[in-house]
Amino acid sequence: MVCRSRRHQPTAGGLTIDDVIKGSPTLEAVARLAGVSRATASRAINGGSRVSARAQQAVNDAVRQLGYTPNSAARSLVTRRTDSVALIVPEPDERVFSDPFFARTLHVVTNVLSERDLQVVLLIARPNDDKQRILRYLHRRTVDGAIVVSHHRDDGLSDEVATLKLPSTFVGRPWTSADQVSWVSTDNIDGSHKATRLLIERGCRRIGTIAGPADMTVGQDRLVGWRRALAEAELPDDAVVHSDFTEAGGIEAGRSIMRAHPDLDGLVVASDLMAAGALRALAAAGKRVPDDVAVTGYDDLGISEHTDPPLTTLRNPITEMADQAARLLLEQLDGSATAPRRVIFTPTLVRRLSA
Amino acid sequence: MVCRSRRHQPTAGGLTIDDVIKGSPTLEAVARLAGVSRATASRAINGGSRVSARAQQAVNDAVRQLGYTPNSAARSLVTRRTDSVALIVPEPDERVFSDPFFARTLHVVTNVLSERDLQVVLLIARPNDDKQRILRYLHRRTVDGAIVVSHHRDDGLSDEVATLKLPSTFVGRPWTSADQVSWVSTDNIDGSHKATRLLIERGCRRIGTIAGPADMTVGQDRLVGWRRALAEAELPDDAVVHSDFTEAGGIEAGRSIMRAHPDLDGLVVASDLMAAGALRALAAAGKRVPDDVAVTGYDDLGISEHTDPPLTTLRNPITEMADQAARLLLEQLDGSATAPRRVIFTPTLVRRLSA
DNA sequence: CGGACTGGTGAGAGCGCTTCCACTCTCGTG
DNA sequence: CACGAGAGTGGAAGCGCTCTCACCAGTCCG
Q1: How many CB atoms within 10 Å of residue B191?
Q2: At B97, is the pLDDT very low, low, confident or very high (cuts 50, 70, 90)?
Q3: pLDDT of amino acid B23
Q4: By three-state DSSP, how is residue B62 classified?
Q5: How far is CA A331 from CA A181, A265, A317, A324, B342, in A?
Q6: CA–CA separation, B85 vs B119, rounded Å?
Q7: How far apart are CA B241 and CA B225, in angstroms?
Q8: H or E segment and range at residue B24
């Protein structure tokens, strides 16, 4: 009883035993120490509109003195915001960590979002095992929004996000619900078309491709661009091998495509990492690049300069894409976005020695 | 009033207009649909002790029918748990994504923790900018615990974690508070000592080292091991260059150490990635490895087999370390850990061609 | 000098959940 | 047959926060 009455006495600066014992200080403690109400303390802490200079100062001091940090669960419960967003990467983690694309994207996204004090949570989901776990995670609304990178046909993400009406941006065109969610992408058909055209103009007549996974739109679109250019030149388009965007996959694919089509004189590869692998396979098979086989990569993220020979490739404006993706998400979080938007960038051809 | 009375009527299966309008269903709605109290519904959902089979079934059905997912903020507020833990990497993100060590660690940690339905949140903190942000994050207790990888001298993490009494494990010996937090590590002094001994036994007499960052215990310890072996053999230990565990850093360091000490016949490098860089620098300088200069790496995470020549290196049991780190954290979360624990693994020498 | 504002404030009502506690029924036992 | 044990249940009290609303000065205008 004594304790109880003491506790509620609003003596400015009067801290009770309770405050000292308790783990982290609450808003209540701050308010009491500052000699104001909880409401005023809350206002002062959250960007003080309608708070007198005196009260503001008192609260600031109390916060500092107690080392107060708001309890985020309590805050989220009422604001229905968590101030964190997920960067979802539905890929096995080996790939995430070997492909510089993800590093760059994470970097840029984190930078843009941290301007608004949003915490980026990286969720790496192995495609099959974790599908349900990720969907549950989103459903629970542990994050205010999501940026999905490297989305696959059956991961269910675009539909889930669309039905949940969760603010989100996809990097790369989603398979489904494409007109209900925002996304950024590059014109992969165009890029691949450019690469193939280059080989044709160079004189190649037997051009194969190492394509990306068939369950990703990037994979599909780059394949379409290659097909289209060959069709326009009335060249055969039967030399296709799908791989997984890794260097190891590229070696394997390079080996198998050369075995199946030994007469190839051009090779359009859907990523630099795979192209680096393919170059190794070609070297091992005794083929000179570009003299025997001309090769193009895709992405231009550093590796392409260090291969032997350096890769002719298509530069995707990854930085701009990631930046745009983050901003599209911000728009939605702000509520300023009216309808889903899409932004499509154009890749540019970078000529080096491989073609 | 009508609405209100209807709302509280415990008619099994009776949903009110409110339920339909509201976004996500609450426990209240589940309870009403199941014809039980909120308390019973909660018990049923959380692993039903003291719940009749009938009630359990009714709640299960209601959950399914409504697509109910508990609101995590509300739950955390009362349980004081968030069911998520942070993997903190105080490194610029370029490094995180180029070093396979992190990929492996993340992979293992995620696997172990997901057995317990813990969500792993990856926090990459650029050392200087984000120091405060990370500390604030931990302070707010947005996570139940943390695993800190690649901790630096001045990042404040070990002290913060110790004073917050936040369950945590460090991978690599922390600089301060080392007896107040749990950590796993390998015996880096021993490993580096072994590498240096090997070179000495091989006949090298002028052995330099490319050391890791001086503000990391790994960097320091591996340097100490090298020094110790040289001292034992009464050889000079003045050829030291510090670098940053990246390949680019290794090239630069290799170049500069050879310039300063052209007579070097052995080089102990504190990581495979740096060693790969050093090999390039040596090749560029016209030195043959191992004939002119014998080289050792450290870590053995894949790259070491693909360098030219393949690296003799020390294998750290990364998988076991990460596994152990996760389990030490689990112990603390369970409350079964009494005192901070440390686990130290022994590195093993892997001989390839570079030494 | 009354009325309409306006800046500043605190009381209090929740947000959706878990959990303590008190209560009601069974049973099995002395 | 009374009684205690134990299983199953619901009422209600919070967790720590935000935010509406009512209120109380002052200030300004007609």
Answers
A1: 27
A2: confident
A3: 67
A4: helix
A5: 13, 48, 21, 10, 47
A6: 6
A7: 15
A8: none
Q: Coil, strand, or helix at residue B292?
A: coil
A21-31 residue pLDDT tens: 446 899 999 99
Q: What is the DSSP string of B173-187?
A: --SSSTTTSEEEEE-
Which residues, in sequence order, are CB contacts of A286 under 8 Å at separation 6+? none
Q: Is the CB of A54 under 7 A from strand C?
A: yes
Residue A184 three-state SS? strand
SS3 A44: helix
Nucleic strand C under 7 Å from the C-beta of B48: no
Q: List Cα–Cα distances, B118 to A133, A138, A257, B82, B143, in angstroms.
A: 11, 15, 43, 9, 10
Q: Can you give the distance from the CA of residue B224 to the C1' of nucleotide C30 in angstroms?
A: 77
Residues of chain B contacting residue A77, judged by C-beta atoms under 8 Å apart: 71, 73-74, 77
Burial B113-132 (b: 16+ CB within 10 A, else e): beeeebbbbbbbbbeeebbe
C-alpha–C-alpha distance, residues B84 and B61, integer Å: 28
With pLDDT > 70 as the criterion, what percentage of chain A qualifies? 92
Q: What is the DSSP letter of B295?
A: E
Does B39 have pLDDT greater than 50? yes
Domains of chain B: 2-70 (1.10.260.40), 84-186+319-345 (3.40.50.2300), 188-315 (3.40.50.2300)
Q: What's the token pair of residue A246?
A: 């890794």
User: In this predicted structure, what is the pLDDT of residue B330?
Assistant: 94
CB atoms within 10 A of CB A236: 12
- Strand segments, DSSP code E, in A174-326 are 182-186, 207-211, 240-242, 266-269, 294-296, 313-315
A38 CA: nearest nucleotide by C1' = C10
CA distances from A182 to A145, A322, B23, B353 (A): 12, 13, 22, 52
CA of A278 to C1' of C16 (A): 56
Task: Note whether A272 and A296 are within 8 A (CB).
Answer: no
